[in-house]
Write a structure and sequence with these properties.
Blueprint (H helix, E strand, L loop, with lengths): L1 E4 L6 H5 L6 E4 L3 H4 L7 H7 L4 E5 H6 L12 E3 L1 H10 L3 E4 L1
Parallel strand pairs: 1-2, 1-5, 2-3, 3-4
Amino acid sequence: MLHILDHLPLQCAELKRTTNGDTIILTANAIDAIKDTNSDHNLLKSLFKQFNLCVLYRDIEAKGVEISELISGITVLDDDEFNRCQEDNNCIRSWN
């Protein structure tokens, strides 16, 4: 399943609807939470070990964030990769 989230931290209800191996794409305000300078980045890294954690390049570019500023292990998707991700997941849940 593909989840698109514009905020962190996740609420319990959101976390309950995820399963191991799901793809989570973070957008908007969630991008600030995945910067390596975030004091909770170790917690986030351990929490998301079971997910494919992604961010859209256009979103980090719009926020003025460099790829090198993100927590390691996050996949940066361009628009074509994002479209393929949507096509590959027949079920998409958007949280905002």
